[in-house]
Amino acid sequence: MSGANGEKAAFGAVKGMLYMRIQELTTTAALVRFAIIAASTFGLLLLVGFNESEARERFQGLLVGAFALKFLPIFCLTKGGETLRGELKDGTIEYLWVRPASKVELYLGFFLSGFLGTMWIVGPALIGISAAGVVLGVIGVGGLLTVWVVSVCVVASFTALSGAIGAFSSKFVVLGIFYYSFVELGLASIPNGVQKLAVSYHAENLLRGVTFGAQGFEVGHLLWIAGIGAVALGLGAAIFSQSHYVVGSEKEA
Amino acid sequence: MKKAWSAKYRRWEGEGVGVWARRLSIARYGLKLCLSGKIIKIFLVLAGAQALILSGVFFFYGQLVAPESALLDWLERLGGEQVRTMFSALTSWALLYPEICVDGIYRIMFYLLSFSGPFLSMIIVALFVHRLIANDLASNAIVIYNSKALTRWDYLIGKFTIVSSILSVVWIFPVVVSWLLGNLLSPDWSFFYHSFPSLIRGVVLGVIAVVSLSCLALLVSSLAKKTGAAVAFWILGWISLSVVASVASFAHPAFDYVSPTQAIYSLSAGIFRLLDLVMDAQGMLPFFGSFFGRMSDGMDPSDLPIDNGEVFLPLLALGAYCVISIAVVSRRIRA
Amino acid sequence: MNSIVKAEELSCFYGVVLGLNNVSFEIPAGITGLVGPNGAGKSTLIKLVTGQLAPSSGRLSVFGEKPRNNPKLLSRIGYCPEREQLPKDLRPIDWLRSLASISGVSWKETKTMAEAALDRSRLDRAHWKKRIGTYSKGMKQRVKLAQAIMHDPDLVILDEPMNGLDPMGRAEFGEILKELNQHGKSILVSSHILHELEFLCSGFVMLNWGRVLASGSQIEIRETVVEWSDEISIRCSDANGLAAHLQNQGLIRGFLAEGDELTVWVNEPEAFFKNWPNLFKGCDADVFEVRNKNQALSSIFERMTQ
């Protein structure tokens, strides 16, 4: 289909799917959830200040150990593929398949709306963490910038990985946990370069000493994270465009 | 009219089954559905395999303390007189202090077993949590259940039976089976008697873990509007509570029990009381006494890298989770 | 015949499960009913036509082109699936705008298009601000129809659109489809209840067990049925009088009179129909309608599928 001028608008599928997602994420319930997450994360992180002498160290430990290396990967790996699988299960994907858009374009739309949905949870948590860090005086502007850049890249990469797993199987949540266990926990602890396949390894390096002024920031690590995400995105698009899905059930094609 | 009715429609006049049979029929159908995947079967086999590993350990230990076992002969041939002396000391200790040398080994092994429980439970429940209540709520099948001769409590008991049966394979089955097998294969059947307290400890921990985790699983399943969300809620809830607990414990250590995992670990330490065991061993056993003495002078137990763990607060936290779960779930499944 | 959809020896299998088995037919412009019981292969055929499935063998063309992986052709097709699920957190206008954008319409035009489509599907403007999750079944069907017709397609495909609608809703839905047809749109509408479509469609494709039982206009399908039924329904002013008249001539072997409706079982159906005006001569009753009961399209289909 074309517009009035007869030409197909560029990235129409991506635009349309993002618009749909934004509308879903700006309902009152979603906005309230956003505020609750930001407030509760902020409140929770303030507890770090109970012991002032150890606050910086504890903040660093929570930010990297609990948030970036544990919560982010598990959350994104279990949530990232939900958009595609949700549409497949509800059958609403049928409305998209019969549109004049390529499957790769549709998959890109799914990835971006999945990324947006994940960021809608991670974003307020990051706001809460950043605010708590500033209030406690344990992180500087450079550190915050690093945390945000790394977190966004990590979320994008894990969302792409989850999307690829979701394109492959409806059991993407469980497979995502397996991926986390074997690759992010397993491979990340193997030296001699194998560990570079784990996003967590790069995130850990990038965020090392972030409360002390972003000492470990190297663009190479960021490129690895982006590269892993790009490969996952390509793989997911290939699987999605070549697969036949059974709409309206949990069954595989 | 009467004739036509009896010819066209015959009312069932068989004997009605009791309410427990009806509850069990919900559980039977649910179990069939929940165990239909391949991955869950693999994990249940893994959980069950722990029983075999423990039985192997108990068998091996039993053979070590038996005066004339083939294993001991073989080890003596390998190690010579020194090994013979060492194992004959072990045999004597087992006879003299069975509460340490027999029960203690069972206690340590069951305590170690409790570390695998939370992780296996998280994975196994994640594989079927969406099929418990979320499926019925999403497909509106709950209305059909409510239209039958069952109350929502019967439905709840049926669903609870499903989760608790599956979780028992993780928490209770390995304890009971390994205790039975280990003792049956032991050289002296008095091991049954001596290791019985460990069995009780293991079963008590298992029952508490199974009940509390089953309630939590039902809660998560009833909160999800979509079936897929139940799985994500379960895993993310598990992780989030761990993170929240670790942060909140900065304010007060008791907040650590916000995480069910931490509560179970602490309860496990509280039930198995390994510090007491070590202190007893330190006081009674000549060789191990000096070995532990190197780590602690025996005056201050906190010097040792183990503790007895808290019982009351974790139990309170798990109890609170159960009460909240039952309250929420019973509301969610109301017609 | 200038056909819009043309199938030649078309088959589609889901593994070892049969969807469509070696069918050939043509669908002309106009409103065509795709009829068959559950599992007949209607949805499979629709999925093939909309390019969601690839044929296992045979050829299928829509507007002379293969539908699979053909975005250009898909822009000429509007599809309304059977499934009721819609994004419940969205307002209809937002959902339609997104779909229009996915179809490649420039963002500025999407709003006008979406509003026009909702108007054409007769969804009351008062409901436009509500979220789809709060809609009744009938309102959801209108939104589904709106997304199918929004981009002004040449062929609109509707899979069981009347499901769950009340009689008034069905009638109104039929009117909307007729209106679309008057504007030059071709419509392919599926249903497992034939009488829903009998007064709406000009042509039919009847399916059962993955095979085409009959296709063509109502007249063409009737002509394919050689056997006439012996059960005839007559609406007249004096049912008992007419029954007596026919019996006296030895034409019928039984009758049932209910009010002005007379049902007779004739001895020679074909001869009766060829000569029926003369047979009523000499009877005082006024005859309003003569119907061979089993010549209704639904009865033909019933017999075909037995």
UniProtKB/TrEMBL annotation, chain A:
<feature type="transmembrane region" description="Helical">
    <location>
        <begin position="172"/>
        <end position="190"/>
    </location>
</feature>
<dbReference type="GO" id="GO:0140359">
    <property type="term" value="F:ABC-type transporter activity"/>
</dbReference>
<keyword id="KW-1133">Transmembrane helix</keyword>
<feature type="transmembrane region" description="Helical">
    <location>
        <begin position="25"/>
        <end position="47"/>
    </location>
</feature>
<protein>
    <submittedName>
        <fullName>Uncharacterized protein</fullName>
    </submittedName>
</protein>
<keyword id="KW-0472">Membrane</keyword>
<keyword id="KW-0812">Transmembrane</keyword>
<dbReference type="GO" id="GO:0005886">
    <property type="term" value="C:plasma membrane"/>
</dbReference>
<feature type="transmembrane region" description="Helical">
    <location>
        <begin position="222"/>
        <end position="241"/>
    </location>
</feature>
<feature type="transmembrane region" description="Helical">
    <location>
        <begin position="106"/>
        <end position="139"/>
    </location>
</feature>
<dbReference type="Pfam" id="PF12679">
    <property type="entry name" value="ABC2_membrane_2"/>
</dbReference>
Automatic annotation (TrEMBL), chain B:
<feature type="transmembrane region" description="Helical">
    <location>
        <begin position="231"/>
        <end position="251"/>
    </location>
</feature>
<feature type="transmembrane region" description="Helical">
    <location>
        <begin position="155"/>
        <end position="179"/>
    </location>
</feature>
<feature type="transmembrane region" description="Helical">
    <location>
        <begin position="108"/>
        <end position="134"/>
    </location>
</feature>
<protein>
    <submittedName>
        <fullName>ABC transporter permease subunit</fullName>
    </submittedName>
</protein>
<feature type="transmembrane region" description="Helical">
    <location>
        <begin position="311"/>
        <end position="329"/>
    </location>
</feature>
<feature type="transmembrane region" description="Helical">
    <location>
        <begin position="199"/>
        <end position="219"/>
    </location>
</feature>
<feature type="transmembrane region" description="Helical">
    <location>
        <begin position="42"/>
        <end position="62"/>
    </location>
</feature>
<keyword id="KW-1133">Transmembrane helix</keyword>
<keyword id="KW-0812">Transmembrane</keyword>
<keyword id="KW-0472">Membrane</keyword>
TrEMBL record, chain C:
<dbReference type="Pfam" id="PF00005">
    <property type="entry name" value="ABC_tran"/>
</dbReference>
<keyword id="KW-0813">Transport</keyword>
<dbReference type="InterPro" id="IPR027417">
    <property type="entry name" value="P-loop_NTPase"/>
</dbReference>
<dbReference type="GO" id="GO:0005524">
    <property type="term" value="F:ATP binding"/>
</dbReference>
<dbReference type="InterPro" id="IPR003439">
    <property type="entry name" value="ABC_transporter-like_ATP-bd"/>
</dbReference>
<dbReference type="InterPro" id="IPR051782">
    <property type="entry name" value="ABC_Transporter_VariousFunc"/>
</dbReference>
<feature type="domain" description="ABC transporter">
    <location>
        <begin position="5"/>
        <end position="234"/>
    </location>
</feature>
<dbReference type="InterPro" id="IPR003593">
    <property type="entry name" value="AAA+_ATPase"/>
</dbReference>
<dbReference type="GO" id="GO:0016887">
    <property type="term" value="F:ATP hydrolysis activity"/>
</dbReference>
<dbReference type="InterPro" id="IPR017871">
    <property type="entry name" value="ABC_transporter-like_CS"/>
</dbReference>
<protein>
    <submittedName>
        <fullName>ABC transporter ATP-binding protein</fullName>
    </submittedName>
</protein>
<keyword id="KW-0067">ATP-binding</keyword>
<keyword id="KW-0547">Nucleotide-binding</keyword>
